Amino acid sequence: MLKKELETTSFLARINIKDKEKEKYLADINAMLNYIKILQEPDVKNLKPTTHVTKIRNVWREDIVKPCPRDVIRQMLDMAPEKEKTFYKIKKVISTE
Amino acid sequence: MIRVKELKVKICSSEKKSIDVVKACFNRIKKVEPKIKAFLKLNEENSLKQAEKIDNLNIKKGLLEGIPIGIKDNIMVKGESMTSASKYLYNYISPYDATVIEKLKSAGAIFIGRTNMDEFAMGGSTETSAYQKTANPWNVEFIPGGSSGGSAAAVSAGMVPFALGSDTGGSIRQPASFCGIVGYKPSYGLISRYGACALASSFDQIGTLSKTVIDSALLTSVIAGKDYRDPVCQPNDWIDYTYDLDSSSVCALRTIKLGIPKQFRDYKTDFEIAKYFNDAVNKLELECSQIIEIDVPAYKYVPALYKVIMCAEVSANIATFDGIRYGYRSPNGKDLNDEYAKSRTESLGDEVKKRILFGTYVLEAKNYHKYYNKAQKVRTLLINQLTDAYKKCDFIFTPATLQMPVRFGNVLPEECDIFLIAANLAGLPGITVPCSFTSSGMPMGVHFMGPRFSDQKLFKMASAFEKISNFNIDKYPIL
């Protein structure tokens, strides 16, 4: 991983890294990348990737809204850092400038 | 502290009062907790109230009526805090019960406290907790293991008879082994994870920590079973996992074939762990029908494989912590993106950030095939080889860990938990059972791993081993 790649990745992950921390993160992540090189060794081109050990498949169902108990709704909203009535309040998404 | 199985009989027949059991737990906690720091929160008042209520019942029909239990701080109990040992969830109050908690409540269990863990279960030493370090009860200068280190230390120090943990890459079984108790991770899909804080969803399972195998089996009988809210949870019939564990299990070994992976020799193993493991093999050789060597070459890919897939899943799961709906929100955000980033940066620990960054990197379009997809294919290779191995043996038998616990601040080698992690990668059940004390006075354990959904048979195997090993489970650390 290059410094530039770390900057892109940290933006994608929404994690800020200070300039003086960059070297440390780069060293750690490059050590991890070096460690996983061993995975290039086995011949697995004929194998299917495993995402899950269960043999579940997608099934369709009607999209029916089940009522949520009022006290649960209240508790969930009470935990919001900022809210207005029954809405979560966030910073402006679209800039007007 | 006596065993849960005996406790249950005595409380149900009113020979013993639940309130006395709960009081005994809190007395022990008051004495040893200042040195161990296993709990993030204790519910003394509520626990005593609940115990009194249960003592006044005429008929006690729950499977765990009046029995205290410790809960890892990543499992939701309605109305109680859940931090996952992270600053991000510093003020989170669970709005509902996890399925396992619903089941424990209807069985009559009493939740006496929330146990410490690595932040979001990321770590193997409980040192990454944002709140406190937990000590190993056998030597307080050493780590208890992790991530369920609080649960393991609490049970081992006799503060609570048993506890719930979660296991993504050995997170129940490694600390259980380091603390000299039994740790069990069920087959993937046996126990619902609804209401548990996710780490890596294709590996995560809730499991048990206890002094004896039968107590873990009893707890599993209560919490296992189908749940429509966890789609991977399988529709199995209710099983009494304690059935037949008491009596005939040593004889049952006569038909068991154990496999020891040849790859075990490729790793540097602590001298004493190797010695006591060999003793255990010799003892089992007299009882089991056969002990054979099996070949699973893909074991060598396990730590790398785990690292890639776990971090990738972490980066996706932790994306939900954005400071919008709950948890920490930075007061310094300029716009929405800045607010996301600052809320995460200011509240998450270094280990968590490192895993998110690594996981994000291996999932980026240009790296996806090289790293993530490749790891998923190697995972298939491992699963195929393990499936072949189980054609030749019933269980794979290894030491639980290859090294003993280290002092705080020291790092264990990547390969230490390799035999535990394989169970998560392949969705198999695994159980660690204490085997011996080493010359340092610290315990070491062994690990049995069975085919998927062989959990009942696995308990029998572990229980039989417990009977023939010399490990004194009645010995408690002096604190």
Short description:
The complex is a heterodimer of chains A (97) and B (479). By secondary structure, chain A is mainly α.
Walkthrough of the structure:
The complex is a heterodimer of chains A (97) and B (479). Chain A has 97 residues and is mostly helical. Chain A has a domain at 3-42 and 64-88. Chain A has helices at 3-12, 19-35, 70-78; strands at 83-84, 87-88. A two-stranded antiparallel ribbon of chain A has the order 1-2. In chain A, a hairpin with a 2-residue loop joins strand 1 and strand 2 (87-88). Chain B is α/β, with parallel strands linked by helices and 479 residues long. Chain B has a single domain (1-479), classed as Amidase signature (AS) enzymes. Chain B is 39% helix and 13% strand. Chain B has helices spanning 4-12, 18-36, 44-55, 99-107, 149-156, 173-179, 213-223, 249-252, 271-287, 302-317, 336-347, 350-363, 368-392, 418-426, 455-468; strands at 39-42, 68-72, 110-115, 162-167, 182-185, 205-210, 257-261, 290-294, 395-399, 430-437, 443-449. Chain B has an eleven-stranded mixed beta sheet with strand order 1-3-2-4-6-5-10-11-9-7-8, with helices on both faces. In chain B, helix 10 crosses helix 12 (350-363). Classes of the chains: A mainly alpha (97), B alpha/beta (479). At the A-B interface, helix 1, helix 2 and helix 3 of A face helix 10, helix 11, helix 12 and helix 13 of B.
Question: Tags for this entry?
Answer:
A: 97 residues; 3 helices; 2 strands; B: 479 residues; eleven-stranded mixed β-sheet
Strand content of chain A: under 5%
Q: Largest inter-chain interface? A: A-B, 48 and 66 residues
Can you give the helix content of chain A as a percent range?
A: 25-40%
Number of domains of chain B: 1
Largest sheet of chain B: 11 strands, mixed
Low-confidence stretches of chain A: none
What is the CATH homologous superfamily assignment of chain B? Amidase signature (AS) domain
Element order, helices and strands of chain B? HHEHEHEHEHEEHHEHEHHHHEHEEH
Instruction: Give the number of DSSP strands of chain B.
Output: 11
Which strand order does the major sheet of chain A show?
Answer: 1-2
- What is the straight-line distance between the termini of chain A? 36 Å
Using only C-alpha atoms, the radius of gyration of chain A works out to 23 Å
The dominant shape of chain B is: globular
What would you say the CATH architecture of chain B is?
Answer: Alpha-Beta Complex
What is the typical, i.e. mean, pLDDT of chain A?
Answer: 92
Largest beta-sheet characterization of chain A: 2 strands, antiparallel
* CATH level 3 topology of chain B: Amidase signature (AS) enzymes
**Helicity range of chain B:** 25-40%
Which structural class best describes the helix and strand composition of chain A?
Answer: mainly alpha
Identify the CATH class of chain B. Alpha Beta
